[in-house]
Amino acid sequence: MENLVEKLMEWITLNGINILVAVVILVVGRWVAKLIEGIIKKILTARKVDGTIVSFVASMAYIALMAFVIIAALSKVGIQTTSFIAVLGAAGLAIGLALQGSLANFASGFLMIIFRPFKEGDYIEAGGTAGIVKDMQIFTTTLTTPDNKRVIIPNSKITGDNIINYTATGTRRIDLTVGVSYSDDIDKVRRVLQGIIDSDDRILKDPAPMLPVSAMADSSINFIVRVWVNVSDYWSVFFDTTEAVKKRFDQEGITIPFPQSDVHLYEHKE
């Protein structure tokens, strides 16, 4: 026992400076790690990142920095850390390979929360599905489709393809194709369509509505009714305008050739 104590005292005497330096590394390193953890929290909070993500990222940064600090301190007092680092590296690689799918979803969810390509309540098309965003989690995003189905999509599938956000700008354009007979007066048709547009206060004046003749088809002259509305008014204006066109055409004696459909949406994907 006495020999052990003597050897310990001798080791402390020989490595006293290194031990002191190691302690300083631990103290200063921990202070720096805490400082960086606080900075990360402030930056992410200022960007209005979800609180769970802020806490997770800041904690991971702190743990990673402290691992480096501890390894540096151990190395300073003469303890070999090469094998320790190799074991950590191998363990990290094994865990990464085993969880690569989950990690991809996590990374995608983190990026979406940071860059905000959409938010809860937006109507989007992503991951092969269109619907209203109901919930954004770190691994998955939940959409509700127009027919009230709940679809849970892995985040990596969303970020791996195009994201179409229909509500991001606050307004949307309605395109209706209306076919009339070759015998009808196109100036009269345009006046009737313009009257329908002018009578609906939900249709925006800016950008201005458009009523161009788009094609001379086999059995009809085709007009495009192109108007802009607020996102919340999109479907109500679409259906009301469709009905109004049919009723006004009947009143004015304007013919919609058969089998041309009465009014249909042009290149609509919802």
Question: Could you explain the architecture of this structure?
Answer:
The strands form two sheets. A five-stranded antiparallel beta sheet has the order 4-3-2-1-5. It has a four-stranded antiparallel beta sheet with strand order 7-8-6-9, covered by helices on one side. The chain has 270 residues and is of the alpha+beta class. The chain has helices at 2-14, 16-46, 51-76, 82-98, 100-115, 155-159, 186-198, 234-252; strands at residues 123-126, 129-136, 140-144, 150-154, 164-165, 171-180, 213-216, 221-230, 264-265. It has three domains: 2-98, Helix Hairpins (Orthogonal Bundle); 118-165, Roll (SH3 type barrels), CATH 2.30.30; 171-265, Alpha-Beta Plaits (2-Layer Sandwich), CATH 3.30.70.100. A hairpin with a 2-residue loop joins strand 1 (123-126) and strand 2.
